[in-house]
């Protein structure tokens, strides 16, 4: 027999009547109605205050139809990304890391896929850059690449203006600032802070190298395309995707060259980007030089490899050529940059022509800009690279 709490608390000898228990609601009917009304009012006020409803709360049914072109509620970041890549290749973007073998510095860059290059070539037959001669373009499977047409060559058509008569009579120096196109800020600094006579060299990487190259040409800079080539310590030191390699056939390397050539337009020539092993190997270098010469381009050897065969190979093709005499910011300090510029001046006075290359480091741009202002007073003329090439050839 189970005892209840009342039975246990009853005094001995007494009995209590068991009370009938009633089930009671925790609230009255009026309270329940008030709660329901309160919930309704809260819901109504929420809709009225926070929902943009032009019908003022009247009964309605809504069907949301989204289209990428008309949806104003598209996230801002997505809009910005689409806007920034509107001229970039439409294929899958890839992020790659370039490693500097000497310093170990890593730099991430984003490039577009091949499919985007093809689509860009088919959907935009007209060049995105002002002043591009459409006759000097030929369609490849990656996009538009330079070609000789009607007796015209990209080297002569896209050479920057210069007083060549004056240049022939006095010492000249050509300065090429390279590594541009990756990093819009440093590229813009080089374009805007350096005078038009400075030649600018662009790598094929970056989200939109064509836009930056166009801006450089709009500021009357002559531009070059830097072609990544295999260094001795590859792949530990990797120039980037589509690098020309000594292990590939000439057809494979030329196909990769076409990919680089299609990344932007309006350049007068190409230059090696790294490439100590590749440029020293005649069997792989010769087809590249032959192809570039056939397309009416000049060639700049950055001077980093004493074993480069570029000079003899370009001579065999009667191709405009120059080799850099000094890397101006090999030691990126003000004192060393200034010291190298003095050496460049001395060489120009001795030989008539000198070529220096530099990267777009802030200190390099600042020292170059200051130095260039003093050249006229020392009887030296700053000229675009093509002018220095032509003077060296004629001399």
Describe the 3D structure.
This protein is an alpha/beta fold and 395 residues long. The chain has a domain at 159-390: Glycoside hydrolase/deacetylase (TIM Barrel, Alpha-Beta Barrel), CATH 3.20.20. The chain is 38% helix and 16% strand. The strands form 3 sheets. Strands 5, 6, 7, 8, 9, 10, 11, 12 and 13 form a 9-stranded parallel sheet that branches. A two-stranded antiparallel sheet has the order 1-2. Helix 9 (250-261) crosses helix 11. The radius of gyration is 35 Å and the shape is globular. Residues 1-17, 47-92, 100-104 and 112-128 have low confidence and may be disordered. Residues 60-98 are annotated as: Disordered. It comes from Bradyrhizobium jicamae. One of its GO terms (biological process) is carbohydrate metabolic process.
Notable traits:
single chain; two-stranded antiparallel sheet; alpha/beta; TIM Barrel; disordered N terminus; Divergent_DAC; transmembrane helix; 15 helices; Polysaccharide deacetylase; nine-stranded parallel sheet
CATH topology of the domain at 159-390: TIM Barrel
Residue runs with pLDDT of under 50 for 5 or more positions: 1-17, 47-92, 100-104, 112-128
> Can you give the helix content as a percent range?
25-40%
Rg over CA atoms, rounded to whole Å, is 35 Å
Please count the beta strands (DSSP E, at least 2 residues each). Answer: 13
Distance between the termini: 125 Å
Largest sheet properties: 9 strands, parallel
- Structural class category: alpha/beta
The whole-number mean of residue pLDDT values reads 80
Provide the CATH architecture of the domain at 159-390.
Alpha-Beta Barrel
Q: Secondary-structure element sequence?
A: HHHEEHEEHHEHEHEHEHHEHEEHEHEH
CATH superfamily of the domain at 159-390: Glycoside hydrolase/deacetylase
The fraction of residues assigned to DSSP E strands is 15-25%
Shape verdict: globular
Number of helices: 15
Q: What is the level 1 CATH name of the domain at 159-390?
A: Alpha Beta
Pfam families: Polysacc_deac_2 (PF04748)
GO biological process, one term: carbohydrate metabolic process
Biased composition (Basic and acidic residues): 69-81
Keywords: Membrane, Transmembrane, Transmembrane helix
């Amino acid at each position: 027999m189970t005892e209840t709490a009342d039975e246990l608390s009853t005094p001995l000898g007494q009995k209590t009547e068991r009370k009938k228990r009633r089930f009671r609601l925790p609230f009255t009917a009026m309270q329940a109605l008030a709660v329901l009304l309160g919930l309704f009012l809260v819901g109504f006020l929420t809709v009225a205050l926070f929902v943009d409803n032009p019908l003022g709360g009247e009964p309605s049914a809504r069907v949301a139809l989204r289209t990428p072109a008309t949806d104003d509620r598209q996230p801002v970041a997505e809009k910005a990304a689409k806007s920034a890549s509107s001229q970039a290749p439409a294929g899958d973007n890839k992020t790659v890391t370039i490693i500097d073998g000497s310093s170990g510095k890593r730099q991430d860059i984003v490039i577009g896929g091949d499919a985007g290059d093809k689509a860009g070539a088919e959907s935009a037959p007209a060049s995105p850059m002002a002043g591009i001669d459409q006759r000097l373009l030929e369609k490849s499977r990656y996009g538009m690449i330079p070609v000789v047409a009607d007796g015209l060559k990209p080297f002569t058509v896209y050479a920057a203006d210069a007083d060549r008569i004056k240049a022939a009579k006095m010492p000249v120096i050509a300065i090429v600032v390279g590594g541009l196109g990756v990093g819009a800020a440093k590229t813009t600094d080089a374009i805007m802070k350096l005078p038009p006579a400075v030649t600018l060299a662009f790598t094929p990487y970056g989200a939109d190298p064509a836009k930056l190259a166009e801006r450089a040409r709009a500021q009357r800079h002559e531009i070059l395309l830097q072609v990544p080539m295999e260094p001795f310590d590859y792949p530990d030191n990797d120039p980037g995707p589509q690098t020309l390699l000594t292990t590939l056939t000439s057809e494979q390397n030329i196909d990769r060259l076409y990919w680089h050539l299609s990344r932007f337009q309006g350049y007068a020539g190409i230059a090696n980007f790294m490439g100590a092993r590749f440029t020293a190997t005649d069997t792989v270098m010769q087809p590249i030089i032959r192809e570039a010469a056939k397309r009416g381009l000049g060639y700049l050897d950055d001077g980093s490899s004493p074993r480069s065969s570029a000079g003899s190979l370009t001579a065999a093709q009667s191709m405009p050529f120059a080799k850099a005499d000094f890397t101006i910011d090999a030691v990126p300090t003000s004192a060393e940059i200034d010291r190298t510029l003095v050496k460049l001046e001395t060489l120009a006075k001795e030989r008539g022509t000198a070529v220096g290359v530099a990267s777009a480091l802030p200190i390099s741009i600042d020292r170059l800009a200051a130095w260039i202002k003093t050249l006229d007073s020392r009887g030296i003329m700053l000229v675009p690279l093509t002018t220095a090439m032509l003077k060296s050839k004629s001399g």
